[in-house]
Specification:
The chain has about 300 residues and is α/β, with parallel strands linked by helices. Helices cover about 35% and strands about 15% of the residues. Strand 5, helix 5 and strand 6 form a beta-alpha-beta unit.
């Protein structure tokens, strides 16, 4: 029998992609709060992860061999506006889950973010001290520390800006960018904000490869440091869209929903020693299907959602 993997946030963008990557080797159980949007072949369980009782019940009923905790409120602007509302899911849930996994001796991977850094000393390694400038980053940095204090065998994966095919319920910033460009509408992209973007499928494979093989903090950044604008140029070239619609913008030109670090590029050498091999962004974009990249239930919101408020 295959080992059982419990994935929280299974209907989200990364969760959907990770479940699909895990299916050949794992019996996958996807945790959702509402709805049942998980890939075919994934069992669905519903839980409110903010409730400690639901977490205990979840582990007892699903009886997993390993847990990948991806559920979070990743909208940095929303976290900044509603710290009390985002704290239970972004900090409380992963810490309690870590305690439960430690008690049961279960493998645990927790997804964090490159936004735990201030962006003034990139590229960042796992030993660099977090110094976040936004509340979402502070919540994740606190969760990292408390998760590892509760369970020294846990794996904390700091993730970069992700792109790829959307789930039926959630897309990456790429979905919105394509929607605007295909409609002939201009898109403002930062020239002075740098990340190490990676395809969700590559990150999913990397995380699964690390699970059970190491613990502590591990970076899963992409292989190239790119500005948002430079990434937009790759997108426009890949999908034959008008480059003139990309408007170079500086952080200082706009009033932002929350502070943005200028450069949170990740050094992912440690993960590469365990076989992590993310494709360069241009190659990963070529590997994508050339569809609308927006599914029926994914509603594109205000343009700021794509490149300002999202992680």
């Amino acid at each position: 029998m295959k080992p059982r993997l419990l994935v929280t946030g299974a209907s989200g963008f990364l969760g959907w992609n990770l479940c699909r990557e895990a299916l050949p080797a794992w019996d996958v159980v996807g945790v959702v709060h509402q709805g049942d949007a998980v890939p075919p072949g994934v069992a669905v369980v519903r839980a409110d992860l903010r409730l400690p009782g639901d977490l205990s019940r979840l582990l007892d009923e699903a009886a997993p061999d390993a847990v990948v905790h991806l559920a979070a409120i990743a909208d940095a602007g929303l976290c900044q506006r509603d710290p009390g509302g985002s704290f239970p899911l972004n900090v409380g849930a992963p810490v309690h889950l870590a305690r439960l996994c430690a008690e049961r001796d279960l493998l645990l991977a927790f997804a964090s973010t490159d936004l735990v850094f201030a962006g003034t000393a990139a590229p960042y390694t796992e030993t660099d001290t977090p110094d976040p400038v936004c509340l979402y980053g502070r919540q994740k940095a606190l969760a990292e520390r408390l998760v590892l204090a509760a369970y020294c065998g846990a794996l904390v994966c700091r993730l970069p800006l992700l792109f790829g095919e959307p789930s039926p319920r959630s897309g990456s910033f790429l979905s919105g960018m394509l929607r605007e460009l295909r409609a002939g509408r201009p898109v403002r992209l930062f020239t002075d904000e740098f990340r190490t973007p990676a395809a969700a499928t590559c990150v999913a494979r990397g995380l699964l490869g690390l699970l059970g093989n190491t613990h502590g903090i591990c970076h899963l950044g992409g292989p190239e440091r790119l500005s948002r604008f430079a990434f937009g140029e790759l997108v426009a070239a890949r999908f034959n869209l008008d480059l003139a619609l990309l408007l170079p913008t500086r952080q200082a030109d706009l009033t932002l929903a929350c502070p943005r670090p200028p450069d949170v590029s990740l050094d992912s050498a440690r993960a590469r020693r365990f076989g992590y091999a993310p494709l360069p962004p241009a190659e990963a974009l070529m590997a994508l299907k050339a569809p609308d990249m927006v599914t029926g239930s994914f509603v594109v919101q205000a343009l700021a959602w794509y490149f300002l408020d999202r992680a």
